[in-house]
Each structure stands twice: as C-alpha cells, then as structure tokens.
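Hi all, long-time lurker, first post. I run a small reading group and we've been trying to get comfortable going from sequence to structure in the token notation. Rather than ask abstract questions, I figured I'd post a concrete chain and ask someone more experienced to write out its structure so we can walk through it together at our next meeting. Sequence below, copied exactly:
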Amino acid sequence: MKIDKFVIAIIITVIAAYIYPDLGKGESAQVLNTLSSIGISLIFFFYGLKLSPQQIKIGLKNWKLHVLIQATTFIVFPLIVLTAYPLITEDNKALWLAFMFLAALPSTVSSSVVMVSIAKGNIPAAIFNASISGLIGVILILLWIGFFMTSTGTDYSLIEVYQKLLLEILAPVILGLLLRRFLGAFALKHSKKITLFDKSVILLIIYKSFSKSFLDRIFENLSPLKLLAVLAVAILIFWIVYFFIGFIAKRFHFSIEDRITAQFCGTKKSLVHGTVFSKILFQNASFLGIILLPIMMFHAFQIVAISVIAAKHGRRD
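-- Answer (accepted) --
Happy to help. Here is the structure in token form:
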C-alpha cells in the first residue's frame, strides 16, 4: 500500500506554517487571501467543465442507491455529531463545531471514483453521486452550520457568506457548465494537471489557516492526548457510517457493486470542499486551524481504510 503523497504534503504544509507563520499576517496574508479566492473560483470552474449532464441523467435511474448515499452524507453524518452536542463544554465548542463542519461536508469526487473502480464497484453511480454531492453540499452546509456558528460567537454574516458562495463557487460552476461544450475536452485531457492545481490551492489555504492559528496560539490548549482523541473520534465516525451503510444496503438487497459504491461514496468527506468552505464560512476566525483538524485527520484515515478495503474487493472474481 502506497503512502498518499497529498497526505504527506499536508503534513509538511502544517509544519511549514508552524516554523514560518509570519506569511499569514499583514500584507502577505492579504496576498494569500486573494490568491486562494482566485484559486477557489478556478477549482469550481474546472469542476463545472468536467461535470457531465449525460452522466447525471444516466445515474438518476438507480435512485435507491443515490438516496442512501446522499442521505448518509448529509443527514446521518451530522446527526451522529449532533447527538454529542448536549455533552459539549464551553472549552470544547470550537472542536465540536469542527466535527459538525466535517459531518456537513459533501463527498469527495476523484478518490471515490478511483477507489470504486479498484474495488470493481458501480463506477457510473460513483461518478453521479460524487458529482451531485458537491452541488448539494453548497446549499446544505449552511443549514447545518449557520446556527451553531452564531451560537459559538463567530463573526458571521449570512449575507456575506451567501455572496461569497455565489461569487466564488456557484457562479464558476455555472460558467464551467456553460462552457463545457467548448472547453470540456480540454479539461478532461489535462485532468491530472487540474488535480495538481486543486491540491496546490488546498495546501495554500491550509498554510494560511494554520499559520494564523499558530500566531494566535490557538493550539496551546490542545494536548497530544486531545489530538489523539480527535483522531479516534474521526475514525469512530467513519466506521459507524461504513457499517450503517453496509447494513442498509443488505436490507435493500443491493448488488455487491452497488454496496461497494454506497459504502465508498457515503463515507467520504471532501478535503477540497472542507478547506474552501472553511475559508468562506469562517473567514479570518483565529480557530480556523482547529476547524480543519478533524477533516484532515478523517481524510488521511479514509484514504488508508478505503484503499485496503478496495484492494480486497478488487481481488474477487
């Protein structure tokens, strides 16, 4: 099993933010803000270019599978985290909000499809669900997160957030869809380069977020034991959802291909959307690094776990 290079790049970026945090303040912080905003718009413009309306049409037929995946992604995940809310102390509210943010995120596109392919699952359904998940997530994440952001005292303007979502995410996606007939082939041809660009933007946002958190000494209250607890909770949530989907899929008598797709797509959370939405929703909040902590840990674990499971399924006849 290969070590994911992107996970290594994330770790290096966080270390760089710790050693050289000064780029995250003053004029350089404004430059990073501008670059990341442009990068976000381009990520979703390319997303629109690669989104196939025909694939979405074909995918609509297998509606039970789609309902299970989307319901798990946007309802089951948040409800699991929501059950812990009455137990949260004032000191741990930001960390709980970080898990709620993780739970409200859409599924990741590229790795879901790749892993389903390795495991010999239903690839068209994986493409459909991973693609549609990103569009649904733009709307639903505000419904889940908005109230709790206000209650935690975050500097939060709903109008400003909607404006940013419209300008930086929805408008580029729509523009990409409109230009797909002209530039779609170009986007598919250079998909590896586009993926590299996407990851570079994500690393830029992670650096900026963590450098600000390190400068504001946000992590001083997080002991190594607490960090391990965050990782343990992220892993626990993953397995609860994974086995829940497997149970429901068996009750509905899904084929092995559909069950693989449901479990792989339904347990994934997009680090790309996480970093992008965190920048828009939480803007310059000092605890932005903490907000990204669970999604980065979850992302690293889901890649390892699903890779092992995919390899096992891929060896079947």
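A couple of things your group might point at:
The CA atoms of residues 49 and 180 lie 5 Å apart.
The first helix runs from residue 5 to 19.
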